[in-house]
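To make this tangible, we now present a fold written out as C-alpha cells:
***
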Amino acid sequence: MTRTARRRPLPARATARAVSLVAALALTACSGGTTDPPAASPAPPSAPTTGPGGDAAAAPTAQAPSPVPAAGDPQQQGTVQIQLTAGDLSLTATLVDSPTADAFAAQLPMTVPISDHASTEKVFYPPAELSTQGAPEGYEPSAGDLAYYSPWGNVAVYYQDFAWSRGLVPLARLDGDPAPLADLPDDTELTIALR
C-alpha cells in the first residue's frame, strides 16, 4: 500500500499575497508601460455647462469636436441620386460619398412608415443597420440633410436645422426645399429608390 503525503494548504495570507502579486504583474504587462491617464473626450457642444455659481456666461467653453462638413458640402457630395416619395410629395437627394451612404443605397428600394421627431425631422428605420466604418464622431445637420443616427439605428430627414449630435452620420442632401416634409402625418409611407 502506497501512501501519498498530503500537502498542507498554504495559509490564507500567503495565498492572498500570491494572487495580488500575479494580478499586479498581469496589469503591469498589459498597460504598455505608460502611467499617463487616458485623455478625456470633449463633451458635445450641445451639453450644457455652467461656470461657478451656475452662470452660463462664465462657463468654460467646451472644445467642439473637429468640424465635419455638412452633407451638402461639395467635398463630400457623391453622384448617386435617390428619389423620396410620400403621397403627392416627391423629392430628390444626392448621397454623400461614404461607406454608410453606400450601405443605405444597397438597401434600396424601400417603403417605410415615417414619424415626426422633435418637430425637426422625419425618422424611419431601414431594414438593416448601416455600416459606420470611417464615419465621423458626429455632426451638425442642416435642413435638407438625411442622416443615420447610429445609436438608435434610424434615418432622419431634417426639415429644420439641428444641433451637433454624437453618432449622427451624414447620408444625403435633398436637392429641393425640405419644408413640405413637416406637413406629413405620422405613419405616412415613404418610398425611397435609386434614380
In short: The chain has two helices and ten strands. The CA atoms of residues 111 and 191 lie 4 Å apart. Helices lie at 12-30, 99-105.
